Amino acid sequence: MKKPAQAFCVGLVFFGALTHPVVAQTSETDSSTPLPSSTGQAGDLKVLPRIGASFTTTGAGYEEPFFSLEGFVPLQQTPGSNLTFLEGRALVLTDSTFGTNLILGQRFYRPSQNIVLGGYLSYDVRDTGKTTFHQIGAGFEKR
Fold it and tell me: How many secondary structure helices (H) and strands (E) does the chain include?
């Protein structure tokens, strides 16, 4: 049962990271098309997907070094107003244990109050080699 859940979480991260359209940068510009200008307003913000990998040595909570692969995918967004996203991480420890987490979140910007409100649901799994722990979480945030 634990392997299908892990495969599902990792699959969702890769699916989101690999299916989002890629935008290439070019050095040539067409002079007839005006370049977009930044006004410094929240409406200018467009959150892009990202993926990353890292290696962490031993530290608090981990007796073994581990490798992590993480991704962030905006599912729906209205620049300057709201963002729905999926974020995931897969951890592979050097002792062959495994962990993943997956977060589905939503954030709203309220310009009248200049605050960001949000909420999320999360699922975590961690295989310690002796037992596997599952955790579901939820939260609310205000910035």
Answer: 1, 6
How many structural domains is the chain composed of? 1
Tell whether 99 is covered by a domain. yes
Tell me, yes or no, whether 7 lies in a domain: yes
pTM of the model: 0.64
- Residue 38 counted as domain residue: no
**C-alpha distances in Å from residue 95, one per residue of 20, 59, 74, 80, 131:** 33, 15, 33, 44, 14
Work out the number of other CB atoms within 10 angstroms of the CB of residue 41.
10
In a domain, 30, yes or no: no
Residues in CB range of 56: below 8 A, 6 or more apart: 62, 65, 66, 67, 68
| pLDDT (tens place) for every residue of the chain, 143 residues total | 455 445 455 555 445 554 445 444 445 555 555 555 556 666 677 889 999 999 988 777 667 788 899 999 999 999 888 999 999 999 888 877 889 999 999 999 888 888 999 999 999 999 888 899 999 999 999 98
Instruction: Tell me the residue range of the domain where 48 lies.
Output: 2-16+44-142
